[in-house]
Write a structure and sequence with these properties.
Layout lengths: L2 E2 L14 H8 L3 H16 L1 H13 L2 H4 L5 H20 L4 H17 L3 H21 L6 H76 L5 H27 L10 E3 L1 H18 L2 E5 L6 E3 L1 H18 L5 E9 L3 E8 L31 H11 L3 E7 L3 E9 L3
Parallel strand pairs: 3-5
Antiparallel strand pairs: 1-7, 2-4, 5-6, 6-8, 7-8
The chain binds protoporphyrin IX containing FE (HEM).
Protoporphyrin IX containing FE binds next to helix 5, helix 6 and helix 7.
């Protein structure tokens, strides 16, 4: 299989403004970069002194001093701070530069340093830089430098307050979205509970009717008719148990019964049995490896994931003879369960889309389905720390993989 969808994993960074656009908006030209390189020796000459002042400023405020308790860390930071200042003046501003700055931003955000602290610290850069430059020139009056610095402080304060408002707004939007999600989740769970009750009541009635029929008319009926009615009754019990298990899936993950080793073969056989009518009708040859290794997870989640992947394959196989093969590949820690079909295949650009909710292949818009099956399959397996992805070759077929831990 030559086309592989991305296994689920880390989310990408959101699209941000391009570097070229940032520089344009800042009106930072090559002349600016040249000027910075020219003043670099003057500013760097007092680098050590600058760094001492920088950190004494941070030590003077409890909110920043608390991050600097470890003297070894502070010594390391002093060296890095000096290098940072030098690179700001001398380095080429390219994608690698942006990446290094992003890393610094990430490190600070992770430990909890706020934009307000950051801006205050950059003000140290300005005060030091401008005073250093003024001291080397007669034309730049000290009063003028102090005026520029006051103006910059006013600008920094404005930037700080605007950033505060921006983050407050963004956080409040996020909180509203979370509230909505929580409410939708609660309503969905209540709906699932009501629906399960509504579905189980008529099933119990059907089972009772089967019993009554057997009690009242059993002796007059042929043995084969009694056997079929008994089978119908057993099916209603099984369906009722399945509704209970599905209801379990709508309960928050932590409440769900503990995960453990799963009898993979049995779980897949259950999923196949549920699809039996469609499999027969479409004359699909299903082959299930005779022995499969146990995997670690929740059996209901695995069964539903397999069921969704299988029903997707059953729906789309288009050749005769149509085949679906289910087998396993084991590595040290993990086991990959593969569902391979000889269907039409999936175009490379669609391979990842198919796992998004309500995304259906353009070529399959006419087929029945909610567009949620593969999305559910992936999210169920991810809840057990596993991955789901697909590989495909147009015209040849697709393989859907479920990877779970082989041992707990
Ligand atoms: C002008 C603004 C600042 C610059 C340019 C700057 C620069 C840096 C750099 C280059 C690093 C090393 C990052 C790495 O490991 O790759 C660092 C780490 C750190 N900075 Fe800053 N910093 C600034 C402001 C602050 C402020 C206001 C604080 C507050 C105390 C602070 C505290 C820290 C701490 C605690 C770390 C170490 C984080 C860790 O490795 O756990 N920095 N900084």
């Amino acid at each position: 299989m030559n086309q592989v969808s991305q296994p689920s994993g880390r989310a990408d960074l959101p699209e941000t403004v391009s570097l070229a656009h940032r520089l344009e908006f800042l009106q930072m030209s090559s002349a600016d970069r040249q000027r910075l390189r020219e003043i670099a020796p003057l500013i760097n000459a007092g680098g050590e002194q600058f760094v001492e002042r920088f950190y004494s400023h941070l030590f003077a405020f409890p909110e920043t001093a608390r991050f600097l308790q470890d003297p070894i860390l502070v010594e390391r930071l002093k060296r890095m701070q000096q290098a940072h200042l030098e690179s700001m003046l001398e380095d080429e501003v390219d994608e690698a530069y942006v990446e290094r700055r992003r890393r610094v931003g990430d490190v600070h955000a992770q430990v909890g340093i706020t934009p307000q602290m950051f801006l205050g610290a950059y003000n140290q850069y300005l005060q030091y830089g401008l005073r250093q430059m003024a001291s080397s020139r007669d034309v730049l009056l000290p009063d003028f430098v102090e005026e520029v610095l006051s103006l910059l402080k006013a600008i920094f304060l404005d930037v700080e307050l605007t950033l505060d408002a921006f983050f407050a707004q963004a956080t409040s939007n996020l909180r509203q979205a979370l509230d909505m999600l929580f409410r939708a989740n609660t309503e969905l769970r209540q709906f699932a509970q009501l629906t399960s009750h509504d579905l189980k009541t008529p099933l119990a009635t059907v089972a009772n009717l089967c019993d009554e029929t057997l009690d009242e008319f059993g002796p007059q009926m042929p043995d084969e008719a009694c056997r079929l009615i008994e089978m119908a009754k057993q099916r209603t019990y099984r369906m009722s148990a399945m509704i209970d298990e599905l209801l379990e899936l709508s309960i928050p993950v932590d409440d769900l019964k503990a995960s453990g080793p799963i009898d993979t073969h049995q779980v897949i056989a259950e999923a196949i049995e549920r699809m039996a009518p469609e499999i027969d009708q479409r004359k699909i040859a299903i082959s299930l490896a005779s022995s499969l290794p146990p995997v670690w997870g929740n059996r209901v989640r695995l069964r539903e994931a397999i069921f969704n992947i299988l029903s997707n394959a059953v729906k789309f196989v288009d050749k005769q003879p149509a085949t679906i093969k289910i087998y396993a590949e084991i590595s040290n820690e993990t086991c990959k369960l593969a569902v391979a079909d000889n269907g039409p295949g999936i175009p490379p650009e669609e391979l990842d889309r198919i796992f998004s909710p309500f995304r259906r292949l353009k070529t399959h818009q006419d087929r029945p389905g909610s567009g949620l099956g593969l999305y559910f399959a992936r999210s169920l397996i991810e809840q057990d720390g596993g991955r789901v992805w697909a590989e495909s070759q147009l015209g040849i077929g697709s393989v859907f993989y479920i990877e779970l831990k082989h041992k707990g």
